[in-house]
Design a protein that fits this description.
The complex is a heterodimer of chains A (362) and B (543). In chain A, 25% of the residues lie in helices and 17% in strands. Chain A has 362 residues and is of the alpha+beta class. The radius of gyration of chain A is 27 Å and the shape is elongated. A five-stranded mixed beta sheet of chain A has the order 2-1-5-3-4, sandwiched between helices. Chain A has three domains: 74 residues, Ubiquitin-like (UB roll); 131 residues, Alpha-Beta Plaits (2-Layer Sandwich); 57 residues, no CATH class. In chain B, helix 7 crosses helix 10 and helix 7 crosses helix 14. Helices cover 41% and strands 13% of the residues of chain B. Chain B has 22 helices and 14 strands. The N terminus and C terminus of chain B are likely disordered. The longest helix of chain B has 21 residues. Chain B has 543 residues and is α/β, with parallel strands linked by helices. Classes of the chains: A alpha+beta (362), B alpha/beta (543). At the A-B interface, helix 2, helix 4 and strand 7 of A face helix 2, helix 3, helix 17, helix 18 and helix 19 of B.
């Protein structure tokens, strides 16, 4: 298409989706337009945060500008384009493709995974014999958080693309080829020996249950009902929203995930602490009440009024005897911005010293 | 995916994050050669030299067999023609000697079956080809005798004076393209796409650097004609490339040469040096880039990925390479044989070339003929001859036996029955039979051959050479092999034939590129043309 510079390229296109005219903008994909119009097109390798690859073939639809079916996730719209998302051929394709994916799984697909949901929704062509693809895993990977079950991988490459394009880490890659293709690290090293930051974004984006939290592996495979409780991560001041997945029978949190991309400040992402370091929640050593050191030299649980009163008494005592610069205030990286503000206010305005620091400042 | 999440526009960082700003991925594959393949330390060293992340470097190297397994001493061709001449025995024999040996995809030496590729002193190249278990013992193929009515004329001496380039300069870029249109040259690499459409598209691209790429990654099983062009007529190929660059306004030529082709590499390098000395290449940059053992890189967009230092996984089209090819530049990609036709077209006119063909067909065509024929070789015949004429040119079925089946255009064309002997060897007529002319790699099987085994050979080839990017091809090729093995072992169920057709349909409809679309043909043809080959194997015919 040549743009003659006089702005004759139409700003608004009309696309026909399953017979219904829909407005679209130049450069949009069929998938984007269909989602806006409420037309459901199934996807596996698509993640809004990643450039589309069209590799999983789940989103193929019929399009008037192509003899063959096209991947909706990366097919650009054009004016007058007619797209059919639910023809007999599209339905047949979905069933046949899902049958191939399932033939390549070690058993039933992982409960709750996108793959399992789509297979239930669209059905699978019968009769396809199971194959055993020789995908290598990393059985000796000593990291405590992320399990890679190679036999369940569908090679959509969402994990490698997330690691590369969103996390900017590039610790994992598609490796080998054909049936041997797998997700690997350089030299098949364990994740701890790579650039991996254990953010777990790969686990989060996996649509097949091939990458899972070790803490939740058993619960996921059993299809155990987990209750999701929204909370705020308390490891730093960013305020990432987190979803705690609670096994009510065991009364334990088994995994932490981010709310979907585009919905909260963390935009679908978490760091290693927020996602994996939730063991403190029911740890026996967790502090549940303030402690004050008694005359016996040991720490004793008490109430907040008593604890704060004791702290105030000692701090003002030091200030009165040696001057405010004898005091120094250090706030925790787990404090919010507002809490950090209050700490410096306490130091500067309350006691009159500039000896204040925040442990994440350097 | 988050249903109900508010729409949100993401700025795609592509796959460029995580690498150094000046990362030079195009150097990754040549550096693997320098480091002797995927060996301990190589990945870190290449990361340090290029700025490409270590995992990415590993992922690229592991894709290519010649890089991924640098310690293999000998690779035994498991192509159909080589298996028919005892490749299994050669492989077993070398294994029994304790050598580091493995089977490999067709080596393009079908006339020298059973062919073995021996590792040389240099890692990654320096290979030596042999027939049977002895390196270096190969014979020259039979050729069509030299004649003025041949567009390429393999048996004639190569002409280092490049007279057609001079003629092309007189015609001017547009004039050359007019002759090409008149020649009705259809791409000789396999797809048969009209060459002038590509040339015109690149010539019409917006101003800026353009590239001409020669696809010399000959790998379609049963095909060895580009090999002979490269060895015998490298000047004719280079002259065709220079004319193409002139006609589309390119100043850069890249020849992507199959890495296993050691003899062709030496011939090509010598011709490039000679042409440079003669001043033919003034103003043109010419590079020879070596492949590293991946059939899929003969697919033009996978080839571009390899040249850019990535895993050879085909791109989606559009955009076509003529719009955005090598490093995003408008790129003309033509096969060796197509380009070698160009000098004669320019010198003698497009109408002359078109008149060489028979009927609707245009030009002469190189047929690689191997298998059970008296004289395996490369025959240049008018496009549009019948299969029977091709067979006759190669001396007929060997040993006076009857024809059992034939593959008209490489593994991608499947297998046709003896009653198709009069089929016209052109793109259209073969497509009507559910086959294809492809690269015209003809493999002949006599009446004693096990056709189920032949189909299994071809199905295993596609399984091994699938890039793995899309599920219809990656998993479909595995399922087809499984179904054929069940038939071989008498374990097929009544429903297997339906399953085979359903999976074949999905591979055709759902695959990204032509490999997955062609891969089911051998199995499908067995069902369609050779029901006996399955019927004798047990209860499969119940379906």
């Amino acid at each position: 298409m040549k743009d003659d510079g006089r702005g004759e390229t139409p700003r608004t296109l009309t696309v026909t989706l399953d017979g219904q005219p829909v407005a679209a903008a130049p450069g949009e994909t069929v998938l984007t337009v269909a989602r806006r119009a409420g037309v459901d097109i199934p996807t596996l390798c698509h993640d809004d945060r990643l450039a589309p690859t069209g590799a999983c073939r789940m989103c193929l639809v019929e399009s008037s500008d192509s003899r063959r079916m096209v991947p909706a996730c990366r097919h650009p719209v054009s004016d007058g384009l007619a797209v059919q998302t639910d023809t007999p051929d599209v339905q047949r394709h979905r069933r046949a493709l899902l049958a191939l994916y399932l033939a390549d799984q070690p058993g039933a697909p992982t409960p709750g995974s996108d793959l399992e949901r789509l297979a239930r929704r669209y059905g699978v062509e019968p009769g396809v014999p199971a194959v055993e693809a020789p995908r290598a895993g990393r059985p000796d990977d000593a990291n405590r958080f992320i399990a890679f079950r190679a036999d369940r991988c569908i090679l959509c490459a969402r994990c490698t693309r997330y690691c590369d394009a969103v996390a900017g880490v590039a610790a994992i890659t598609l490796a080998n080829r054909g049936a041997h293709t797998t997700i690997a690290t350089a030299g098949d090293a364990g994740l701890l020996d790579t650039s991996c930051e254990l953010c777990g974004g790969c686990v989060d984006t996996c649509p097949a249950g091939a990458l899972v939290e070790r803490s939740a592996e058993a619960a996921i495979d059993a299809g155990a009902p987990l209750e999701v409780v929204r909370s705020t991560c308390n490891y730093c001041g960013v305020g990432c929203q987190i979803d705690l997945h609670v096994d009510r029978v065991a009364n334990a949190v088994v995994r932490v995930t981010s709310p979907p991309p585009g919905t909260t400040t963390n935009d679908g992402n978490l760091c290693v602490k927020g996602r994996f370091a939730f063991g403190f929640i029911d740890h026996p050593d967790r502090l549940t009440a303030p402690l004050v050191r008694g005359a016996d030299g040991a720490l004793h649980a008490t109430d907040w009024d008593t604890a704060l009163g004791r702290a105030a008494e000692l701090l003002t005592g030091v200030s009165a005897r040696y001057g405010p610069d004898a005091l120094g205030f250090v706030s925790s990286s787990r404090c919010t911005n507002e809490e950090n503000y209050l700490v410096q206010k306490l130091a500067r305005a309350g006691f009159g010293t500039n000896n204040v620091h925040q442990c994440a400042a350097t | 995916m988050p249903d109900g999440a508010p729409p949100r526009t993401y700025h795609h960082r592509g796959d460029e994050a995580g690498r150094r700003r000046d990362a030079d991925q195009a150097r990754v594959l040549p550096l693997f050669d320098a480091h002797g393949g995927l060996r301990p330390g190589a990945v870190r060293a290449i990361q340090a030299e290029t700025g490409v992340p270590a995992a990415t470097v590993h992922g690229v190297g592991s894709f290519y067999h010649l890089i991924a397994r640098p310690d293999v001493e000998a690779r035994v061709c498991e192509g159909l023609s080589c298996r028919m001449r005892g490749a299994d025995r050669v492989l077993a024999g070398l294994r029994a000697e304790g050598r580091a040996v493995e089977g490999c995809a067709c080596l393009g030496q079908c006339d020298r079956a059973p062919a073995v590729l021996w590792a040389g002193a240099e890692a990654g190249h320096g290979f030596e080809i042999g027939t049977g278990a002895e390196p270096g013992s190969v014979a020259a193929p039979h050729l069509t005798p030299s004649s003025p009515d041949l567009a390429i004329d393999l048996a004639a001496p190569d002409d280092p004076t490049w007279p057609a380039l001079e003629a092309a300069r007189h015609l001017g870029p547009a004039g050359v393209r007019v002759e090409l249109r008149a020649a009705r040259l259809r791409g000789r690499g396999g797809a048969g796409f009209p060459a002038h459409l590509k040339w015109d598209a690149v010539a019409a691209a917006p101003p800026g650097p353009r590239v001409v790429v020669c696809n010399a990654d000959e790998g379609e099983p049963g095909t060895f004609k580009d090999r002979e062009v490269l060895v015998r007529r490298p000047h004719r190929l280079l002259e065709g490339l220079a004319i193409a660059a002139h006609a589309v306004g390119a100043d850069r030529i890249v020849i992507y040469l199959r890495g296993e082709f050691e003899g062709p590499r030496r011939a090509l390098e010598a011709a490039v040096a000679q042409a440079r000395g003669a001043g033919h290449l003034d103003g043109l940059s010419v590079e020879i880039a070596l492949g590293h053992g991946a059939y899929i890189c003969g697919e033009e967009t996978a080839l571009l990925e390899a040249l850019e230092g990535r895993r050879g996984m085909p791109r989606h089209k559009p955009p076509f390479p003529t719009e955005a090819g090598l490093f995003g530049r408008p790129t003309l990609i033509n096969n060796v044989e197509s380009l070698a036709c160009v000098p004669a077209i320019v010198q003698r006119g497009g109408a002359w070339f078109a008149g060489l063909g028979r009927g609707e067909a245009s030009g002469t065509k190189l047929f690689s003929v191997s298998g059970d024929v008296a004289r395996p070789g490369v025959y240049e015949l008018p496009l549009g001859v019948t299969f029977g004429e091709v067979l006759e040119a190669a001396g007929g079925v060997a040993g006076g036996r009857a024809l059992g089946a034939f593959s008209p255009g490489g593994a991608s064309s499947g297998l046709l029955p003896p009653d198709a002997v009069d089929v016209v060897m052109d793109f259209g007529p073969l497509a009507e039979r559910g086959s294809m002319l492809g690269s015209a790699g003809v493999v002949v099987l006599d009446e004693t051959r096990d056709l189920l085994d032949a189909a299994l050979t071809q199905a295993r080839f596609f399984r091994a050479e699938s890039c793995g990017q899309c599920a219809p091809c990656r998993i479909g090729t595995q399922v087809l092999v499984r179904l054929l093995e069940r038939a071989r072992d008498g374990e097929a169920t009544a429903a297997d034939r339906d399953t085979l057709e359903r999976v074949a349909w999905e591979m055709d409809a759902g695959s990204i590129c032509g490999l997955g679309m062609a891969a089911p043909l051998p199995a499908l043809h067995l069902v369609r043309y050779f029901p006996d080959a399955l019927r004798t194997r047990g209860p499969a015919e119940g379906g």
